[in-house]
Amino acid sequence: MSQSVVLDKEAAPAAGGRLRGHPWLTLLTVAVGVMMVALDGTVVAIANPAIQQDLHASPADIQWVTSGYLLALAVFLITAGKIGDRFGHKTTFLVGAVGFAATSAAIGFAGSIQQVILFRVLQGLFGALLQPAALGLLRGAFPADKLNMAIGIWGGVIGASTAAGPIVGGLLVEHVNWESVFFINIPVGVIALVLGLLILKDVRAENAAKSFDVPGIVLLSGAMFMLVWGIIKAPTWGWADPATLLFLGGALLALVFFAIWQKYAKEPLIPLSLFRSVPLSAGTLLMVLMAFAFFGGIFFVTFYLQNVHGMAPVDAGVHLLPMTGMMIVGAPVAGFLIGKIGPRIPIVAGMLFTTAAMLGMSTLDIHSGNGVMALWFVLMGLGLSPVMVGATEVIVGNAPLELSGVAGGLQQAAMQVGGSLGTAVLGAVMASKVTGVLPGNWQAATGGPLPAGPDGEQLKQAAQLGIAPPNAPQGIADAVHSSFVSGMGVAFVVASIVALAAAGLGLLTKRGANETGPAVHI
């Protein structure tokens, strides 16, 4: 289906010898911007233990450092995509880059865990502006026959920044402080701004929406907030508690009303006609399940490496390199393969590799060696690459060009919702298992019961992060660490089941039906 695209007038000069609008330089620019988002994810994972100790954060608080950011992304991504479709992806991208860098600086200056969480939420909102705008700019800059490769290289660059995050973050946490891991986003943001002003050419469809579906935004945002909040609080409140049921039921009701409203809205936030495409629907749900398994499972790995194995932050970052390194290599290769044979086979194979990696991670214990861990990390990195590239192609390629921003937002929202739910659900599974096995392990190690009252609760909360009491005898430390690993093992088993379900969904995917290159009018 041919689409007409309007470019901004200040970008109008012909391409001969000019940088503005060059496809590969556009790819470089958007990769630098989105690099901040990818870098931030792994940097924060490494910094979480230091933040927890320095600010005396509870396990729930430290989960919100991750979940609050992911939730803000999830809530705002589709709206951000609509903003890009309406006002142009270039402007949206530049605002996102500047805001992300500014909120990163604010996190570095924060003096309490509450401030960190607040600014992480704001950071997530600006990150939401960046990601669908980047995909919209790529789709407008590249012809159809090169789009898969561009997305693959883009994914590889993001993988490289993901790989650099643990190393850079580990070095900064170990030799400077945790605040410095957020300050590194400032120069990256400045580079993205300068490149964006010099290179990016705004691309938007002529028939893009001219207004915003405010009721739809409110309903969808409220639904996602209530869903994730209810799941995160359920372990504390109890799954059958009226408050838990109120939030989960409210989320379901808001989603129902959202779907009904989309049928009658003049310019709906998410036109339901998008989901008439089975591949697009399957690709969206696939992203949810993939992110559920990956983000939910990987949340515990940094605590396992640092608190159970006693690694320094930089050492923990080095141990994650086999996974992120494989993502660097795998993303461009996946883009090439998908361009040749379509997304279905690479996606299904990738999710089967991820399932095997998750099952392997569930077998780790407190004495597992580096070789065993590296094997599962390599397999996970190889498995995730074709899924991220392929599902992106399926979702964005099966949407009409005037909804490219919404499709990009939908793809990223699916990933962030899945990540938030995965962190919350698997965190609840983990907490339940640790709480169940810790008293028995403690009894076996000490010959006495786990302390009652606040002291016992504090021990349980620390065990959920793999933290043994200071200067504890080896037997007690092993009891705490074994309890943590038991919980992590159950969480990874659940993640593997979700990953296997995602592999089944991959069978429903196919190459984008709307991939034909846009007819560009300058």
From TrEMBL:
Residues 26-514 form the Major facilitator superfamily (MFS) profile domain. Its main location: membrane. It is found in: Cell membrane. The keyword Cell membrane applies. Coiled coil: none annotated. Keywords: Antibiotic resistance, Cell membrane, Membrane, Transmembrane, Transmembrane helix, Transport. It is a multi-pass membrane protein. The keyword rRNA processing does not apply. The chain crosses the membrane at residues 24-47, 62-80, 92-111, 117-138, 150-169, 181-200, 212-232, 244-261, 282-305, 317-338, 345-364, 376-401, 413-432, 488-508. It holds the Pfam family MFS_1. PANTHER family: EXPORT PROTEIN, MAJOR FACILITATOR SUPERFAMILY MULTIDRUG TRANSPORTER MFSC. This is MFS transporter. It comes from Kitasatospora phosalacinea. The lineage of its organism: Bacteria, Bacillati, Actinomycetota, Actinomycetes, Kitasatosporales.
